[in-house]
Amino acid sequence: MAAPRRRLLWVVFTCWALRLRVAVCSERGEDEGRPGGHGDGGSCGCSTGRASGGEAAAQKYSLEANVPPQPNDGLGSAQSKDEGRQMASIPAGVFTMGTDEPAIRQDGEWPARRVHIHHFYMDRYEVSNAEYEKFVNATGYLTEAERFGDSFVFEGMLSEQVKSGIHQAVAVAPWWLPVKGANWRHPEGPDSDISNRMDHPVLHVSWNDAVAFCTWAGKRLPTEAEWEYSCRGGLENRLFPWGNKLHPGGQHYVNIWQGEFPRNNTGEDGYKGTAPVAAFPPNGYGLYNIVGNAWEWTSDWWDVHHSSDETYNPKGPPKGTDRVKKGGSYMCHKSYCYRYRCAARSQNTPDSSASNLGFRCAADTLPDYLK
Ligand SMILES: *[C@@H]1O[C@H](CO)[C@@H](O)[C@H](O)[C@H]1NC(C)=O
Ligand SMILES: *[C@@H]1O[C@H](CO)[C@@H](O)[C@H](O)[C@H]1NC(C)=O
Ligand SMILES: [Ca+2]
Ligand SMILES: [Ca+2]
User: Fold this and answer.
1) Per-residue model confidence as pLDDT tens digits over 277-321
2) Does the keyword Cell inner membrane apply (predicted)?
3) Ligand 2, CB within 6 Å, residue ranges
4) Nearest Cα to 278, choosing from 188, 214, 338, 201?
5) Mutation test of ligand 1: which of 133, 134, 141, 216 has the most ligand atoms closer than 8 Å to its C-beta?
6) Which residues lie with the beta carbon below 6 Å from any ligand 1 atom?
7) What is the pLDDT of residue 128?
8) Radius of gyration for the chain, computed over Cα atoms and rounded to the nearest angstrom
9) Within 10 Å of residue 270's Cβ, how many Cβ atoms?
10) Counting ligands in written order, which one lies closest to the CA of residue 253?
């Protein structure tokens, strides 16, 4: 198979390049949580090229073709909070998108620009394993990782047995490994399962897999502008959804990495891997884990050049090769992936999947079954 090898080489190269950067970053000793602080690094390993898959999936798994999900059916404790409301009403408004003090300049976090956003609805939670299973049960949908037969997993999460079966990538790829049989049901490979984390975010979902789910649920992916506006929760020019300090009052507000990346994951915030989608305090709009935990796909194509002109409901460039993802993940550490900020962004091809990639959906109007 030629395709997996190409993907692997890409990852090896990227990880190697990023490792050099990590060495530079960790010497800087930046202080935490100040606007305009400098970080660096990459997300590494998710941008993998794959033969283009199913834009047709959106049609096939559309609401018209399937029975929509029932409110709160089988979703457990996560959705029973907030009076059973799955989606938050996000008020129309204008906000400052991006920043003039980019922490990761090459990501196109800048310039700061005024952006008007219409009223819309945003999922309060990352889509959970239970919700994704409901979709799969109802439609028979197969994710791209399942169809391609592998996905990328962070090395520190793998059992010795799975690791010993991987002979590629050892020389230079430090932490992302292509694992046969890794997919949303088996996040760390065939000997892992999700039975004790049905309320955690679904992982290993490609952009196409996310679009298929949202379409089935009568929703859509948020644009990057909608995502960032709702991430800021009504605050202006703050780094994080709750303010500028990473640990206000010594409290953890986000599931990221504590300890030295990638060697020592201390799990001080309570989670070495993902957390339940309702863990940690919500932001001002009632959104949980909008940063950290799982990366979240948006509908926009990736581009790093932005006009500083005021815009209304921007939808990103008309075409590109990668899609924008936002918010960082449980693997993010400031020395390497300072992307758990609202202005931060990263990219992946639409058919990429990995053990830290998930999503949530948005909608212009509440689907009937949620009213
Ligand atoms: C999906 O179907 C399986 C097998 O019928 C069932 O055990 C499981 O509870 C279903 N999942 C959800 C979330 O409804
Ligand atoms: C990991 O980091 C913690 C906190 O800095 C330290 O106490 C611990 O000894 C480290 N563990 C390893 C295996 O390096
Ligand atoms: Ca953590
Ligand atoms: Ca998230």
Assistant:
1) 999 999 999 999 999 999 999 999 999 999 999 999 999 999 999
2) no
3) 259, 264, 266
4) 201
5) 133
6) 74, 130, 133-134, 137
7) 98
8) 19
9) 10
10) 3
**What percent of the chain is predicted at pLDDT more than 90?**
70
- Ligand 1 pocket test, pick from 73, 137, 195, 216 with the greatest ligand atom count within 8 Å of Cβ, gives 137
Residue at 214: amino acid letter: C
Q: Report CA(259)–ligand 2 centroid distance (Å).
A: 7
Measured in residues, the chain has a length of 371
What is the CA(294)–ligand 4 centre distance, in A?
4
Cα(113) to centroid(ligand 3), Å: 32
- Can the peptide bond before residue 262 be classed as cis, meaning omega within 30 degrees of 0? yes
Residue 82: pLDDT above 90?
Answer: no
Cβ contacts of 30 within 8 Å, gap of 6 or more: 37, 38, 39, 334
pTM over 0.90: no
The protein residue with its alpha carbon nearest to ligand 2, atom 4, reads 259
CA 157 to chain centre: 18
How many C-beta neighbours within 10 Å does residue 77 have?
10
Closest listed residue to residue 262, CA positions, set 345, 153, 182, 343 = 153
